[in-house]
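Materials and Methods. Structural model of 3-hydroxybutyryl-CoA dehydrogenase. The 283-residue sequence of 3-hydroxybutyryl-CoA dehydrogenase from Pseudotabrizicola sediminis was retrieved and submitted for structure prediction as follows.
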Amino acid sequence: MDISSVGVVGAGQMGNGIAHVFALAGYHVILTDVNEAALTNAIALIDRNIERQVTRGKVSAEDKAAAMSRIKTTLVLAEVGPCDLIIEAATERETVKQAIFEDLLPHLKPHTILTSNTSSISITRLASRTDRPEKFMGFHFMNPVPVMQLVELIRGIATDQETWDAMHAVVRKLGKTAASAEDFPAFIVNRILMPMINEAVYTLYEGVGSVKSIDESLKLGANHPMGPLELADFIGLDTCLAIMNVLHDGLADTKYRPCPLLTKYVEAGWLGRKTQRGFYDYR
Ligand code: CAA
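The predicted structure was written out as tokens:
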């Protein structure tokens, strides 16, 4: 299965990183979003982030220029339909993702592979609403996408072997490493990472430690590159809460109960770095 063109739906934090790594790996990328400013910002950010790699001698100036020329943007979702591979990286809400796939269906080529960068939503359920559940799977990148080595590949109940093998080959071409996961709530990374972050919020909520002491404990005591509360701010507290809810609902176990303090921060609109306020104040 020859994949050369890639459609990325959603130009936010994950979508722009995904467009970045595919363009650098030689793929033709069409990036789409409903918001024109999001597309403009994404191109500026990709340019800045690849420039960072040029400055550090990891990418040549010629490769940067070639990668940038391989990225096109559009406000028209249908224009990504003819791509060989489509990666949905829109808001982490099932209704939004379903609507995108439904709108795309009439524009797809028969061989097009559909994937979702969802961090926790059922791949099998998303796939069942399309005309090609056998060519549908989870394709979950980590943030920041250009830096993180791992990609989770998630097999829906109907994903066929040809699609599965083709996506493993794509991950190799990106120079990343795939972790294979079965389709259960939050897959592997977030099944383990989010309860840890939630527990860190409980540790704060119960007054066991301060934000600083909790983060320093994990950074200096367990060699994590970021403390769990700093990481929660980086990921987005709304995303952390949404994933905890998927775990809690999907696995029906009280050990996944979201910490009330996490819920309160989200209700306050303190979502972390993106709103300039979370466990830390970025204003
Ligand atoms: N694009 C390109 N390069 C980038 C970049 C970006 N967006 N962000 C950082 N970099 C590069 C830097 O240029 C630097 O490169 P060199 O190694 O060549 O010097 C390198 O990454 C490290 O960056 P910094 O020196 O600026 O900062 P740092 O050393 O503090 O590292 C970090 C920053 C990579 C984010 C590090 O703190 C880290 O690994 N944090 C943990 C991140 C993590 O756990 N991510 C997963 C979140 S979970 C997830 O994504 C799944 C989900 O569904 C929620």
